[in-house]
């Protein structure tokens, strides 16, 4: 760590600061302003020194209002000094005056530090798990005064100052105290409260003033395009979600129904003038809609502060601040609480894979590559032109791990979906030979990132039982969702990108050609239980010219709708948790754009309403039938009934679980009805049709089996003969009389 340059604090025989100290304070170049400013003992008495630009006269008072001494101006820039009539060291208030008026201020340099040696120890060790209670801006009472305590990590800086409207953004006025063992700079500024914009002015190790930096631990930010951090009261919401949280603490999410509605908060709905809904407005619309549609969870694309709307939040500059786009941070707490009271979980998209290089952000934070690697072969992301966190640095790991814990503790979120995990795991991700640095063993695996992910998962699951983590990991990295003590990364779930890719490829083919691609459907079951999977039909599939899920289906309009309904029922019957991006539940026709709301008027049209009703009914079935969810991640809950009928593009399997009747899922992915089709079933008796995506209520042709089929023992086996409607999926539940 580069030590800050200091100017020695020397006093003359009368206790006056040296001319060099005075000049350095006025110029803002002094490396240790606490050695000069504030209250100092001199010859068994006390002297006060302060820097108050614009003042011509300054009188010192105690916090109780007792006059303590007149200070004389040593420098016209605003340096004052004078003897005090005090018997003990204590904080001071100053009455400053000039020809234009007068004002009061409390001297930040007359207060002692807030952080202590235990903080130093755990911060230096990288084991501090409550950094968000220590770093950033906290409204506190300290030594008899109210104000804000600021603390920031910048170990290589020569000077760090808090700047804001309270000091005319003048970095000379509130230069901070450095804690040399940790590189943390801190300062208690009295007399300011919540709602004050601020940044850090940092002089780098080369003496160059950097662009003003937002606080990495800011709990609130200005609305873009402004980029300052904002002082904020701690969340004061009174939670009423204990029943929801207690349920999930005691549940095994692998055996629970998890059906996720993925939402971009900035474009789900908008005001008529195009402005964003507040969290409270979203709560009033989105939560009832999700309850009605039957999803169990809302997963938000990143809602932490970010400067650029088209990044969708994935290039975040404020990991600890809910975006100002949707109102105050307490509004997000109210949203989560409201969702929980309605029985809905809230998952956040979380981005530790990279961060943007905006001047006010983390890049080159103290004039050095602090959060990122200095070598661009490890510290620069070629796909997104962003920086990559240095996962080998304990302070950086601690920053990120604490952030995961922060959202779970302060905002009661139910899970974190971790974006772009594959880009973290491989040193050669999107890099050619010579553009990356092998690990210590000569391999391509980022061992430091592996260690970080394992630690993050251990801390989250250890401190917040009931919170799940989900990896978007697009390769075959082993044991992503296995425990760390078994050599896994420790995630609760992993997105099944293979399912998404193979099924969308299959349904893009004209039905007549699907018999040649039968393996696109069956192959997924080879690895379906190798991880705890979430089946994702996410935002990634409906942007950048990819169209919508409806547009991806082959055939004319009727066939597209029929195939989409059949696909959804196929997916809801397939092992794995479910995720669907907003708008796809009613067959959005236009490709998603973050700049406009979804086309809600489509729900007025029968085919779109039919798709929504299909999803609603599927969610109800999925949640109410243990066979469809309680063994999503275990092979004993799945068995093929028909796997090789490629000629007819028919698939059938059985889902089962303790505590519920088995359910047969049968799909016919051609537009040809299959009469007298024989499906083997495990038990003789009545099998009730619990969904048929060809039902007229959904917009289908209405073909079916009168609500039930009868399975009989014939020819050494049990089977039922039935009609398979065109481009449909049906589910049959064993329902003996």
From TrEMBL:
EC number(s) on file: 2.4.1.18
Enzyme class, spelled out: transferase
Domain Glycosyl hydrolase family 13 catalytic positions: 262-629
UniProt keyword terms in alphabetical order: Carbohydrate metabolism, Glycogen biosynthesis, Glycogen metabolism, Glycosyltransferase, Transferase
Record-linked Gene3D superfamilies: Glycosidases (3.20.20.80), Golgi alpha-mannosidase II (2.60.40.1180), Immunoglobulins (2.60.40.10)
Domain of life from the UniProt record: Bacteria
HAMAP family according to UniProt: GlgB
Family per record: Belongs to the glycosyl hydrolase 13 family. GlgB subfamily.
Subunit-level organization: Monomer.
Function of the protein: Catalyzes the formation of the alpha-1,6-glucosidic linkages in glycogen by scission of a 1,4-alpha-linked oligosaccharide from growing alpha-1,4-glucan chains and the subsequent attachment of the oligosaccharide to the alpha-1,6 position.
Protein name: 1,4-alpha-glucan branching enzyme GlgB
Organism: Mesorhizobium escarrei
